[in-house]
Amino acid sequence: MEKLIFRFNNQSSQSFFKNKDLLGGKGANLVKMTKLGLPVPPGFTISTKVCEYFYKNNKKIPKKVIQQVKKEINIIEKITKKKFGSLSNPLLVSVRSGAKVSMPGMMDTILNLGLNDKTVIALKKRTSNGRFAKDSYRRFIQMYGNVVLKIESYFFEELIENYKLTKGVIQDIELTEEDWDGLIQNFKDVIKEKTKKNFPQEVNEQLWGAIGAVFLSWNSKRAKTYRKINYIPDHWGTAVNVQAMVFGNMGENCATGVAFTRNPSTGEKKLFGEYLINAQGEDVVAGTRTPQDLLSMNKSMPVIFQQLKKIFKLLERKYKDMQDIEFTVENNKLWMLQTRSGKRTARASIKIAVDMVQEKLISNKEAILRIDANTLDTLLHPTLDEKAEKKIIASGLPASPGAASGKVTFSANEAERLKEQMQDTILVRIETSPEDINGMHAAKGILTARGGMTSHAAVVARGMGKPCVSGSSEIKIDYEKKIFRSGEYQIKEGDIITIDGGSGKVMLGEVRTVKPDISKDFSKLMNWADQYRKLKIRTNSETPADTKIARDFGAEGIGLCRTEHMFFDGERIISVREMILSKTLDDRKEALTKLLPYQRNDFIKIFKIMNGLPVTVRLLDPPLHEFLPKTEKDVEDIAKELNISNKNVKSRIIELHEQNPMLGHRGCRLGISFPEIYQMQCQAIFEALAECKKKKIKPVIPEIMIPLVSTAAEIQILRNLVVKTAEEIQKIHSIKIQYYVGTMIELPRAALRANDIAKYADFFSFGTNDLTQTTFGISRDDSGKFLNDYVENKIFNKDPFVSIDERGVGELIKIATERGRIQKKSLKLGICGEHGGDPSSIEFCEKAKLNYVSCSPYRVPIARLAAAQAYLKKNKKYK
Ligand code: PEP
Ligand code: MG
Question: How much is the average pLDDT of 520-528?
Fold first, then answer.
């Protein structure tokens, strides 16, 4: 019979401790901790299979599971010597979600379940602590009311806040047993009013209500949003963990805390965490009381602190990773409630991986495989310029590093709305809750007035790699008026602020940023990656500045120099427009003569920086509309230059208008119609080489690339043009020039006819932007309007312009690779579409046996790492 319930301390469950698919992460780790002999309160996990059944069977739980749960509760009763619903020594349980991967705060949890009007009295007697018993009961009603009965939590919170105001106290801890008695009655009244039913007193009804609610929370809006952002499949479902409660809120020798075995912000090997004496778990993260630094526990609870340190070490040794832990101390006894791999910043993840290699916990291959290559992005982007003028208006905790500027917005939905308009925002909240997840994702950074380093805002921002300043108590937010005040400053919605998540500072306006300092650990990791990867990494770059950045990041060549981008610079755009608008060959030649020196000089600069490394120069490939004069002033300028009337310019623009410029007179079609354009560009390349030779600059072997080829005849004709131009320049300068001629494969026909095309090409570079556009027949410029619907309806897993569609576009790449290499063994193959910087597409390129990937400069390190990961995964070298 299929096993659906897993008792933590049962031998047969313990063989499943690695099976997170079935037990969820939390359940699997509770089983493992129990197996390691750690103090874990007894309990069991209801597997994800039951969740699957629940959704397939009209939200019912199988009978078999109901019976087994009863049995398991009996076993907890035996171990704890308490009884569920007992009027003398009641057992209380927690009911928690736990999916295969951690989704912090996205699903529901219920604590103190098993309390009712009678058991609460028993608990009071048993513990001789009336305040504790009542506090636990009101928490339970509050949680149950919210999670199971769906009553907004602010109905309860408001009652507490108003009561405290009347009583003239600030902290919950100042409320007495009698105070809670009154509030419990108020809470029950709210429930009666909202649900027309009394708060359930029967403990089994409570239990099944809670289990059902946890399953339902898998499909809550926030859980769905989180899954969408993190590409977590909807069919996984959650497990449910039912566990005996232990109490951190029974008095001064009780506590509750969360800890990371290393610093999740910096990676430093130092305990990091927060705890609260006399409190329950959610108090630490909720930000209602300011928690204490875990290190101070060495003084307040020294024995427990030493015990914790030992456990942290053991867990790190067993899991070989930094752990995020929840614990509770009940009457000086330590209980472990959770361990999981801790979320961390990119910087921390590199430091931890590199340190763990040095500590011989993991191999350097494991270190490489551990880093999410995409997150490197956050490290490579600029940080605040120290020299820039800053007007600091507030400060808080440095919860997640990096700098961000944007318009102040106070609501998650507004942040999302502004993102759609391409506007940068900083989401400012008193504290964030899982409901804010969409806005946190949309905003550039997050600022909160309340909450510590382990608050929701801090944890989620670190996971997302977003800057966050939390707990900035100086700022006073007024959601209604849409302002916040900090000292003498008043900031309105829409005002621009900058936050620095590394220092915790909040600044007025936009502050200048600088290139980040790359750490030694980062370089070490990159060197390891370079040892293992087979794919070469090139960059897409056409300016000396970008080329220099890319070289510094380790680019081994230029895979795509888009020459049309060079044409936008400064004055030369006028000559470019002149060339495009020319009606006669002579006019065009005249414009080209003006452009030649610009191009030659650009190439000299780039060749110099590349110092002998390969450079792929793509000949002109503009969809013409990109270059046509756009404004009245553009028209005037060009009319003056050509010495014709504005009207004439306008009528030429109309003549050149295309319905579908992406499929129009672009790419090699231009070269076929106007060979003098490509001739000029080749002349510029070869003359630049001659000049470099004269200046003794290390020679580059250029790879001249013809865009948008679909037939062998096109490349045959244009190759001849390149060869002829080279011969002329060689003769004039009496030099020997080495070069290659190749093509982009960016049209399906080119991929299919790769064997013919390879006859005239020394290399292929897959232009996956256009290849995706033309394979799907989806315009790359207009897809934004509907792609989201496609992802939402699960037609696409991911945007195919971001990650290669392996089954369609990928198939064409494989066909072209195979056919091209049959024709020409030496054919060099690479990719230069945006996919060249996307880790999962890079994995595909490794499998497809390409020679290189080319990506934008800032993605070069990402590609280096992703290429190593792809190689290690392909060859199953995990250790
Ligand atoms: C491509 O199509 O993938 C490509 C690299 O060229 P562009 O984006 O310039 O069209
Ligand atoms: Mg293209």
Answer: 95
